[in-house]
Design brief:
Length: 144
Amino acid sequence: MLLNVKSRLHEGDIQQLLGYSVFPDPDSLQEALSQYENNENTWLFAYESEGLPVGIIGFELNEKQEMILRHLAVEPESRGEGFGRGMLLEIIDDMQPVRITVETDEEAVQFYRNVGFVIRSLGEKYPGVERFLCTYEVEEEDEE
């Protein structure tokens, strides 16, 4: 079950999950927390399994219903069990974006490709680190 955790930014388990999706230093985590705290167009949800948060998804959603995925992480012990895909699909269903974009590294590209994102290399944005832009156009459901 996805829970809005924007009001729980200072809880250790929420910060730990968010920490899995940022550059591993305290400044990056603080910057991410500040983003959610100070921007009303950002959303942060955690996925709970058996009463414990196991995944986190954070994004920005503009007035055109375009979503920029900022953070998506699952605790290491729960990876490969479909939580990441499940969070993404539930957010698509709940928030109904028309498009989702996310910038990521080579490690996560296959996940996004498997979900149906179109992948485009951005080249080396940082020395020795290739980055990718992943885009997902949400198809409208036919109403009958």
